[in-house]
Amino acid sequence: MNDYTSDIGFKSINHDGEQLCGDHVEVVEQEDGSTVIVLADGLGSGVKASILSTLTSKIISTMLAAGLSIEECVETIAATLPVCSVRGVAYSTFTIIRLIRNHTAELIQYDNPQVIVLRGGENWEYPRTETTIGGKKIYRSLIHLQEDDVFIAMSDGCPHAGIGIAYNFGWKREDIITFMEAMNLCGYTAKNLSTVLVDEVNRLYGGKPGDDATACVVRIRKRVPMNMLFGPPSNRDDADRMMSLFFSKEGKHIICGGTTSSIASKWLNKPLRASLDFCGDIPPIAFLDGVDLVTEGVITVNRAVEYAKDYIGENLLYDQWSSGKDGASRISRLLFEEATDISFYVGRAINPAHQNPDLPINFNIKMNLVQELSEALKKMGKRIKVSYF
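^ thats the sequence. predicted structure below, dont judge the formating
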């Protein structure tokens, strides 16, 4: 076992004119700490392709996670998937990345574009073994993981981008490698790397994709702990215990809320300095020695929750929070991009100011924000711990 963790992100665009995507990505966590990731590309596009890819990814990920062999998975898929009445075939191509306790990666590839692996920031031609299962040619690889390894899996909609528009024969694999090597230098998360790749694919298609296109990126990185304090404790006598626990933890420290930051200032015996820089409709941040970020409470955290929900979805708001100077943008960068293990320390005190019926804020909303943010971060693959006071 090591202190590595996997940052996993993916994004898809639909074939022009289709409401459903013919590609599907499934991620399943195993009890031993391993992870199975399957990217399936259903035959054709639309509803049939969506059903094929969803069935394929669900079957493979579930069977592999249960300890069954790839041979059994392929045979099950062949016997399960419906036959296309037009083409007379029934299959979905797939790419499997199995991360064994973040120590070793097993790649299993059938008919999808070959996975790109960046090691040391550059393309690495990893070993492949060819085998035949049920008449299908499958490539298998076993890779011992290193820090900052990046795996890029794609459906064939990505290298087909730009055919007859930007390129005669599509976006070649070597061109995608060059593009992703450059993007990787920016330090993007897996989600953002998959987003920039698919956005470029969409641009090459002229905004009208001729095929479903999906990119799934896995980045291997070391664990980074972070701590966030939100609200004062319901019992004032618990303030010292809450602060002692919060500041004793390894990693960066974020404090949200005016009353909470005042309590921290008193506990640290350090002055709290307010910033006069207003950034849009988000209240300004403050500064406190010994704390990495001090922000306002409910309004700021609510915006961070909006960013989190978008990030695990279409990731359309990235430009807003990736460079913003407001508290919500700063929280988002710390939690989404830097942290892997996040501890929340949540006070249950009721703020008298929030009891004004003219304000759309109450105690339940505050607790819901913590729950929504925690759930979104879990979907990003973060380890979350919430302690209430």
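The chain has two domains: 4-222, 225-388.
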